[in-house]
Amino acid sequence: MILNRYINRQLLVTTLVVTFVLVMVLVTGRFIKYLADAAVGEIAADALFLIMAYRLPEFLQLILPLSLYIGILLVLGGMYVTNEITVMNACGIGRKAIIRAMSVPVTVTVMIIAAFALYITPLGDEEGAKLRDAQRDRSILELLTPGRFHTRSSDGGSRATYAGSVDKEKGVLENVFLSDFRINPETKRSELVTVWAAEGRMVQHEGMNYLELLDGKQYQGQPGAGNFRNVTFERGLVRVGEEKVDRTPKVRSWPTAKLINSENPEANAELQWRISLILIVPIMSLAAIPLARVNPRQGRFGKIIPAVLLYMLYMGVLLVLRSWLADIPIAKRPWYYHMAWVHLLALMMVFVLYNWSDWRRARSARKARVAA
């Protein structure tokens, strides 16, 4: 049908443009964070784009429903402004025809979100976590840039490392400077350990990475106090890596089949969240049709802000409930602690939006009859 192609073409273009803008905003913010981590040596520069690629499905599964929702608002709002909807109504084409016209793009979007939420995003998150763990386990030779300080923070302290030159082929550092600031867990006092050495090289001992320092000096004491200890050494070892342990994957990385069979409250919350991402597409697409109705004088953007705020309220309630569900064991949850109730309330809201105008007209007619 010509009308279906006309609406779908405009909706496709508008949704793609909105998606592109939102993705660029979200990706740029995240990329700046990863770029800052790369600047201080937390991750390798060549791993930036690969990490972003693993995070992209997660971004898209959140952005696509909102983009489609805004696209419907803009397309139908423009048709109201140009009186196309008025002409369609005069020809007997009402909301049912518009819903049928949009059923194809909405169905396609639901399928895409389902693929992302149930399979692609968990897989990408798992691969991204493995890549980030590999970056944490890199040796100091890979992290250091000659002539620049490299800082790294950990629980209870931080370390600054400097090398005048680095020979990565031979594994040798020259003019090495290390400064460790940490809180003593026993005395609860801050301690500063500063080491300088003429040369250093990476060695392994009992499965741990150490930096072997030659011909150096060590200063240790409490900042602000005058009781620093000065030690000269010919050879010393400094641990530069954490003990490798098997990291348990986060629930968000679990396959959907594993979530279904789990009694873990976090897994149950994650499963409900993934299903909610799918359900939100048809529900809010239906809500966008009556919300897009504007007066020609208002312009096509007349109801964008309240409509988007309504969408954000919907998503916000789901996110808060997701956090609550993850903290409460399944056996101890109240009956109303379930995301299904949120979707049911959203469907009731859609029902009210579709019938509000009829209810107002019926009420006005009753008042007119009573006045007569």
What labels describe this entry?
372 residues; 9 helices; elongated; 6-stranded antiparallel sheet; 2 domains; 19% strand; alpha+beta
Q: How would you characterize this protein structure?
A:
This protein has 372 residues and is of the alpha+beta class. The chain has two domains: 2-135 and 249-365, no CATH class; 143-239, no CATH class. The protein contains nine helices and six strands; from the N terminus they run H-H-H-H-H-E-E-E-E-E-E-H-H-H-H. The protein has a six-stranded antiparallel β-sheet with strand order 1-2-3-4-5-6. A hairpin with a 7-residue loop joins strand 5 and strand 6. Helix 1 runs parallel beside helix 4 (95-136). The two termini are 46 Å apart.
Short description:
By secondary structure, the chain is of the alpha+beta class. It has helices at residues 2-39, 48-81, 84-90, 95-136, 140-143, 256-260, 265-291, 304-327, 339-371; strands spanning 150-154, 157-167, 172-183, 190-205, 208-221, 229-239.
Outline the fold blueprint.
Layout: H1 2-39, H2 48-81, H3 84-90, H4 95-136, H5 140-143, E1 150-154, E2 157-167, E3 172-183, E4 190-205, E5 208-221, E6 229-239, H6 256-260, H7 265-291, H8 304-327, H9 339-371
Antiparallel strand pairs: 1-2, 2-3, 3-4, 4-5, 5-6
Helix pairs in contact: 1-2, 1-4, 2-4, 2-7, 2-8, 4-7, 7-8, 7-9
Largest sheet: 6 strands, antiparallel
What is Rg? Answer: 30 Å
User: What is the domain tally?
Assistant: 2
Total helices: the number is 9
Overall helicity: 55-70%
Task: Briefly note the structural class of the backbone.
Answer: alpha+beta
Percent range for β-strand residues: 15-25%
List SSEs in N-to-C order: HHHHHEEEEEEHHHH
Q: What is the residue-mean pLDDT, rounded to a whole number?
A: 82
Coarse shape: elongated
Q: Count the beta strands.
A: 6
For the biggest β-sheet, the strand order reads 1-2-3-4-5-6
Q: Name the poorly predicted regions.
A: none
How many angstroms separate the termini? 46 Å
